[in-house]
Amino acid sequence: MGKKNFKIINASAGSGKTYNLVHEYLKILLENPSNNAFRHSLALTFTNKSVNSMKSRILETLFLLSIESNDVKSYSEDFCNFFNISKKELASRSMFILKKIFLEYGAFSVITLDKFSHRLVRTFYREFNLPFGFEVSLDLESLIEETIDSILD
User: Fold this and answer.
1) pLDDT of 89-109, one tens digit each?
2) Which of 14, 106, 115, 152 is most buried, judging by how many CB atoms fall within 10 Å of its CB?
């Protein structure tokens, strides 16, 4: 897998990160709607709020593209030019992808970095010498108590 398979957008708040991420994600999906690209694509962000915003924007944009709405004119014109397709073809591809995502929503991977890291650790728990049913605790108070108890023992 080469570097061309990764797109990193690093910018300050309010600079259009979500717009650009949605644009790039949709470009991947729309390139070949029958290849289930959403099942093999991963978008990472920092907060659950960002995850929900991105998922909503992706689905909403696909829907608006599928009905040829003027609300997504900039996306529509850009994608039609980029793929050299008509608005009808773009609408058709968008609806096809939207239906596939709804049917396989669990494979629609827009997640937080924390969740991604947790999935990796769960996958490789043996290599990390962790017990099978390990848990991640975010209860700071109990962690401090457990650490103190361990030190005292």
Assistant:
1) 999 999 999 999 999 999 999
2) 115
